[in-house]
Design a protein that fits this description.
The complex is a heterodimer of chains A (about 80) and B (about 400). Chain A has about 80 residues and is α+β, with helices and mostly antiparallel strands. Chain A has a single domain, classed as Arc Repressor Mutant, subunit A (Orthogonal Bundle), CATH 1.10.10.10. Chain A is about 55% helix and about 15% strand. Chain A has 4 helices and 2 strands; from the N terminus they run H-H-H-E-E-H. Chain A has helices at about 5-15, 25-30, 35-50, 65-75; strands spanning about 50-55, 60-65. Chain A has a two-stranded antiparallel ribbon. In chain A, helix 1 (about 5-15) packs across helix 3 and helix 1 (about 5-15) crosses helix 4 (about 65-75). The radius of gyration of chain A is 11 Å and the shape is globular. Chain B has 2 domains: about 1-185 and about 370-385, Rossmann fold (3-Layer(aba) Sandwich); about 185-370, 3-Layer(aba) Sandwich (Rossmann fold). In chain B, the strands form 2 sheets. Chain B has an 8-stranded mixed beta sheet with strand order 3-4-2-1-5-6-7-8, with helices on both faces. A 6-stranded parallel beta sheet of chain B has the order 11-10-9-12-13-14, sandwiched between helices. Chain B is about 45% helix and about 15% strand. The two termini of chain B are about 15 Å apart. The chains are: A alpha+beta (about 80), B alpha/beta (about 400). The interface of A and B includes residues 33, 74, 76 and 78 of A.
Amino acid sequence: MPEEIYFLCMLHNIGAVSSEKSMTLEEVARWTALEPEKARTTIYKLVEANYVGVVISGGIQRYHVTVDGIRKVLSMYS
Amino acid sequence: MKVCILTWEFPPRIVGGIARHCFGLAKALVKENHEVHVVSLEFPGTPLDEDVDGVKVHRVIVELGHPSFTTWTLLFNHFMEKKVGALNKDVSFNTIHIHDWLAAPAGIAAKHCLNKPMVATVHSTEAGRAQGLHSPDSYLVDGWEWWMTYEAKRVIVVSDSVKWEIHNHFRTPQDKIDVIPNGIDVTRYQKERPRDSFRRLYGVDPHEKLVLFIGRLAPQKGVEYLIWAIPSIIQHCPGAKFVIAGDGWSRSYLEGLVDSTGYGNRTRFTGFISDSDLVDLTMSADVLVVPSIYEPFGIVALEGMAAGIPVVASNVGGLAEIIEHDRSGVLVYPRNPQSIAWGVNRVLSDPGYSRWLADNARMRVRDSYTWEAVAKKTAKAYERACAE
């Protein structure tokens, strides 16, 4: 499984599955035990692929899995 | 009877066949005058509680998460279990019905806490999906599957193949197992066949042959064997083009494999497509190939048969029970590209034979695989569970 899709699955499993449940980069990095810079690079790839959405709340960018992203995650699980 | 169905997938949250199965079964049970509640997981844009064709659907919010898939599964089961407990205060269910290991912890807890008989449907096994147990997570899932079959009063399986599989692997007593095949809603395919313009969306011209695969891109679906068959199919049928509809973790490997055959320009990977587009795509195809190496049932084969499309499928599992070789489809050797190519070429080269297969297949599906029949048999399983 490509690394960014594995990361997407983790983002889904930690619950960032809607704009209301979006998380900051720091929160995501903490949950997934990734270095923040690595998490940033990976999340941006997923944003470009439309698997992750971005919301801005209080001037801070927060991230969540989109519907396309949820479908992608579900397709990984048998 | 008041039934609570627990499932991790329910439309529009669709992963594989379980969502379609649960939806078809639930609606048919309602038509048989049962009260059916489905407890599943939240999905964006979908109400948490709704009535769908008489089925009361409850989607739980999973308030806790964890990166690990198996831990996440335990967590969402906890919230499903809480929902079942809350619903039972008003409804007082007769039976809890769980689908696969993913809803097992919630169902088993509901059985003991609410003192209700539990029925479990085994749609597939980890040992079958992974062709053995190769990782700690696999052993964990296998253990949960055994536990589910142990705790259930009745175990429903979708084919004789799965019955023997769980009897041999989990030592489930044969007299505890009910074989109830999947059904299909044939009315979805009773419409005018979309042809040329729809095929062009997938790069297939009217004079070309559309060879279709539908399913998750996972190893047990055997897509690589279809890909290895592509050169031989094109040699016999130069106008063949291939559409691989679905997504999964093998996708990038399979795309690379197609490129290595030199026929990347004749093959399209669609990724996820909507249910309505899937129906149209199926009806537009010249042949549907199901090259699975492990297939407990094979709802997609039924869908091809209902759509009036000739089906070429591996002679494995439920596929071998659904399809009568050389009458309602063509069965080929699994893991064998030459055999797959032979089957596809046979169908593509003889339109009269192809039509005859498809007509027989349509009749077989209409007569033997309705959700009404599935619901009646399932209700009997519930009665047996309540009586024991």
